[in-house]
Amino acid sequence: MIDVRRLQLLQALGRHQTVAAAADALGVTPSAVSQQLTALAKDAGVALVERQGRRFILTGAARLLVERADVIFAEMERAEADLAEYAQGRVGSARVGSFATGICDLVAPAVAALRTTRPGWRFEIVQAEPDRSTEMLRSGELDIAVTMSSDIPPNATGEFRLAPVMVEPFDVVLPYQHPLAACTDLELGADLADAHWIMSPPGSPWYDCVAAACHQAGFQPQVAHTVHEFSAVFALVRAGLGVALMPRLGWTGMPAPHVVVRTVRNTARRHVVVVTRAGYDAEPLLSAVREAASKVPVPAASPLLVSGGGAA
């Protein structure tokens, strides 16, 4: 490996032709120039200078190195400029992982906004479920993880840094013809304990979060249908086959004919956080994700959409 500092000395010698002049130009001693040029010739394995009186002439091999040096130093200057831009937050790159609904409602709009406000930044988005995010950060597969937990997330550790984004409530999705569809103030235990429930399989984060809230409200949900996808939930609710508590990021943007979404008191909640390695700064993405979270819609006071009839 050729030492760049030694290459700079060779370039200076080619310009000034004497060791003393090269040393003066670089602010070092003539003996230092001689020693470093000798070491460079040893690294290169070829003769680099020929002495003619008090002057030194570069060999063909040395001239080849100097031609490359111009390109190398230009790239180094650009790299230093890029580092200065990075230090000031104007350029950068990051691999961002998130669960699917977090990508839809938080990460995608955040990155889209940053394309305008921080055009020097590049982001690669990767779908990463919460149970894998931490390990992907640890291995370097991700720089930033937008993840979630049904519990209050722990404080930052020596290994990771956590930043809260939002506390996401679960809203009830009802068939449009449901007796509670016209209500705007629902309570989980009092109003929904006897409903037929649509849930994900036991052991899944969605099921565990909803089941815990129901138990806290004093009842065991009567599970009528078990599905994995939120689109399947909407299809079953639309058909009048049950109700469901869905995380707010899960139903936003979904087509909702014949479906009503309502807020619920004492509902399930999950905490959405941004996690990074302890030494990594999540900005500017963190602020952009928080801004996107502030724009997540809440259920309207009237049914969201009725097929063929518009908003009710």
From TrEMBL:
Name of the protein in question: DNA-binding transcriptional LysR family regulator
A molecular-function term among this protein's GO annotations: DNA-binding transcription factor activity
Entries under Pfam families matching the protein: HTH_1, LysR_substrate
Keyword DNA-binding carried by entry: yes
SUPFAM superfamilies in the cross-refs: Periplasmic binding protein-like II, Winged helix' DNA-binding domain
Keyword set, alphabetical order: DNA-binding, Transcription, Transcription regulation
Similarity field: Belongs to the LysR transcriptional regulatory family.
Record InterPro entries: ArsR-like_HTH, LysR_HTH_N, LysR_subst-bd, WH-like_DNA-bd_sf, WH_DNA-bd_sf
Residue ranges constituting the HTH lysR-type domain according to the UniProt record: 2-59
GO terms under cellular component: protein-DNA complex
Native organism: Streptomonospora salina
